[in-house]
């Protein structure tokens, strides 16, 4: 029984009641009783069910029990009880949580197709298509047919069925809880294997579906199997405090008095922590006090009453503001709603308080099970592709169903499933078009790209987060706005993810898509850069004679006929750049572009500039103009090849190329080029900017705002 079970007096709450299997077995073997009346073995299930659903039709439960009992007759569990006790126990667990009649009918029959001669068609004929669908969803695949892949493929089948009807997973969770309760009859190694699968897959699924009552008890049972020493130590700690005065009861009395005086109708109970919860608190705080063994639960009628209770507690007690969380205004992704706070209780001990309505409490305990039948009108819920539109399908389940389709390999699916379920929080980010994307906490822009565009995200080359340029590896937080920058030509064959994307991908959907693309496009080494270019001798000053006139424009220094001119390598000026010159040793003049930072430094140091202008000559030839360009880009495979190909297409020759090491997925390429005609430069820069991943191209010599 869960140490955190609530009090058993009020219907609609999880009672955590264990089942007397021997009594159940005797009642089951006694037969179905008089015709038309409920068999004794299922009578207690019917009473619990009627407490939640007073008008429920119990005849279908009677017929389901009769079929299950007759089909399983003669079969025994390893514990020695008749096998029928297992479906009865699973059904009672679901009845306690408030499951509706169709779910209980399917839970009674959930093992008949797998372990008896009953077929799915027979189930459908006698109980309808919905019961047939639920029974099929939880029926295991045969090891004879699937071998070692039977377990992962069974879970895949079950999850796909859950995507159409979340009640499939409700039955599976109750089934696993009863199996874990009776696990002691199995060999230790099998106990450990089942407990690990429960820990890695079933408990996270219970958390995501909001079924906290099942999750808490499953955690304790797994804790006892996999960590028996820690479990025993925690149990002794809880028992040691059992005989001492309970400070939480005294604090609960004070809270009741405060709320009564304020005129707020509320129920205040002490809610005990289960063993795993106590263990986590002990690891966090190292020392355990009596108040740490439980929390106060305040139940009210309306949402507004929750905030009224919060105001009274923070007024009349000393609150710990750091402990306050509002899950009513911002519910958790698993439907959970509650206010969390903490106040100073008896002797100054911290008393944690949960404030919620009765409806919120039912959902907090039973999750999707508390929603009843979400398919009350299935004929109106059919979608165009024949799948039922499930109003309870959460975002994580939709993502899981998407990526599992692209993962045929059972081992990859099994590993990816456990990785997906290991993420215990979600964030919601806003798209630029106003839509939203739900992602596991810690996801990056890479994950957002694949969540929004699927395989189209291969052509993403950057992002803006909250309006600012960001790398694809940027981690997203709740409420961020993300605008994904896509290549304008989605058919460019060379665009695609780099191996670094894999390191930033948190979701299986992104990792699987990236791995698939990288496998289909193995890395090709970049071609060597051709350094061939024409030599360029110094250009004499003054207008040259016709016989000596070089092809293309040259820089001319006013009033210095004997001076030779050198074009500065730091800014590589070309016509029609605005230029200035500075005398150097030997009577030569070095020409810089006027915006070049070197010009400012030399003028500041007292150097006197000289006037320089361009002189245009007829004709143009190879190597007449040299320029250095800097390309800022997001790192990706074949970027260097794509840029050099664009440069070559314009007729420019590469003199040298340098690539700086990537920083935060950004990279800087610097090219020194020979142009046949200076007029080519603007078009060349525009062509380089059109290369996927490139977000800026500038002339060298400009000041750079921030280094990569």
Protein model, in words:
- This protein is of the alpha+beta class and 708 residues long.
- The protein starts with 20 loop residues before the first helix and ends in a 9-residue tail after the last strand.
- Residues 1-17, 377-392, 490-494, 524-553, 618-623 and 702-708 have low confidence and may be disordered.
Compile the SSE list and pairings.
Elements: H1 21-29, H2 40-52, H3 59-72, H4 85-96, H5 101-108, H6 112-115, H7 120-127, H8 129-138, H9 143-146, H10 150-164, H11 167-181, H12 188-208, H13 212-226, H14 228-242, H15 247-261, E1 267-272, H16 275-285, E2 294-300, H17 303-316, E3 325-326, E4 339-344, E5 350-357, H18 358-366, H19 395-405, H20 410-421, E6 426-431, E7 436-440, H21 445-453, E8 460-465, E9 468-470, E10 481-486, H22 499-504, H23 508-520, E11 539-540, E12 554-557, E13 564-567, E14 579-583, E15 589-593, H24 597-604, E16 612-615, E17 625-634, H25 639-649, E18 653-659, E19 666-675, H26 681-689, E20 694-699
Parallel strand pairs: 2-5, 6-10, 13-15
Antiparallel strand pairs: 1-2, 3-4, 4-5, 6-7, 8-9, 8-10, 11-13, 12-16, 14-15, 17-19, 17-20, 18-19
Helix pairs in contact: 2-4, 3-5, 4-5, 4-11, 5-8, 7-8, 8-10, 8-11, 10-19, 11-12, 11-13, 12-13, 13-14, 14-16, 19-23
